[in-house]
Amino acid sequence: MKLSAVILAAGKGLRMRSDLPKVAHKVAGKPIILHVVKAVREAGIDDIVVVVGHGREIVQEICSGEELRFVLQEQQLGTGHALMQAEAAVAPENTILVLAGDIPLIQAATLQQLIDSHRQKQAAATVLSVNMQNPSGYGRIVRDKPAAFLRIVEEKDANEEEKKLKEINSGIYCFSGRQVFSALHSIGTSNAQGEYYLTEVLELLEKQQEPIGIFLSDAEEDIYGINDRLQLAQAEKILRQRKNRELMLSGVSLMDPASTFIDSDVLIGHDTIILPFTLIEGNSSLGERCEIGPGTRISDSIIGNEVKIENSRIMQASVSDRCNIGPFAYLRPETTLQEGVKVGDFVEIKKSTIGTGSKIPHLSYVGDATIGQGVNVGAGTITCNYDGKNKYQTVLEDRVFIGSNTNLVAPVRIGENSVTGAGSTISRDVPPHTLAVERAGQKHLPRRG
Ligand code: UD1
Ligand code: CA
Q1: Quick one: fold of 250-436?
Q2: Is 362 annotated as catalytic?
Q3: pLDDT digit string (tens) for 37-58?
Q4: What average pLDDT is seen over the chain?
Q5: How far is CA 231 from CA 12, 22, 227, 234, in A?
Q6: From CA 148, how far away is CA 393, in angstroms rounded?
Q7: Which of 41, 135, 153, 416, CA to CA, is 20 to 30 A from 329?
Q8: How does pLDDT run across 301-327, given as a tens digit for each residue?
């Protein structure tokens, strides 16, 4: 039996009070909808249709890296109407998993269990339910005497007895494709909200004596929907706790998990230690035996083994094994540090490659540069890479020694084994094995007064 998934994401999410559609908001570094897509994929489903409406250009843009198909729900007339829009997009012989796009805590294992239960019972429809202490706001599952499925009643349509029911509809279902679409054609809008309720499909099928399954899950967290920014922050906390736990169990030490923020897709090798107040974001990967932090923020970067980074900002950079960075360094995009490089305090590096074993220990700006192996860049050295219009390259060949406070006016090349005198402004290429000094002679004048 082949599987398709339909993710309902056409709603606006009024309570977010945002210009962005709800599912575009980020949680643990990633838009809500992409967390849902990830869980669906991990549950083994590749054929995914997303129902979009409000802010659809934004949602489609966010999902552009994924192989998804989109259908448009022009007007949001209810969850049943939303699924109807997908009728032409999915093969009717498939089993269809339906879920909302605003549940970032959903995990593949929970979806997998629902799918398995649906298959085992050969049901026409299976709903994932959860027992909740505080069920308010959710649709309630109404069972008949032998505890079989009867219907789902929305809070707004429920009577006092029904409101007391604690078993709620998660909004996650498995359907036989053919049956759900044929039933969808028969549902109406005679309910408190005047909407096409997807939940009515299950009641219809039940009346036709089709087998309806209820998969009662204990994964309460998984189904939390995001409606406002308070819930967004709660989901953020839970996702981060899950990530921290996964990392610690895989051999990464977090000195203080509460002040460590690691995005879901980050990879970290074992015996790496993360010190407090550290953020590791996006598609970053870190090797083994590193020591990161305190106070460090790394985004979309690749870090090798045994790297030390203290109080620094690293963006879209690549750092090889045994580099030592900070405190207070700033690595900007397209920076590559080869093995064993030292980047010290108050050093900014942009679009540059620094060769094996080279050192930039203090107070420097290095931009658009290629630095060879075993180079030492003295304190206060600046690559003057920008003339107000264009950027130019600086090349320091192997074993160059740049004296303190040198201005390297690009384009400029310093040949191998050459040295610049402290305080020089170097604007012409320096041949190999040369000492280049550009500096007025020191004068001694009598002091007045
Ligand atoms: C729905 C269920 C309710 C369940 C709850 C779980 C119905 C009638 N009710 O209620 O039983 O307990 O989810 O969270 O289905 N959407 C569209 N187009 C629409 C309407 C909604 O795409 O026209 C999308 C929304 O963007 C959202 C999802 O469907 O992602 C759920 O819609 P929402 O309005 O939040 O449903 P609830 O009223 O919460
Ligand atoms: Ca909802």
Answers
A1: UDP N-Acetylglucosamine Acyltransferase; domain 1 (2.160.10)
A2: yes
A3: 999 999 999 999 999 999 999 9
A4: 97
A5: 16, 12, 7, 5
A6: 74
A7: 416
A8: 999 999 999 999 999 999 999 999 999
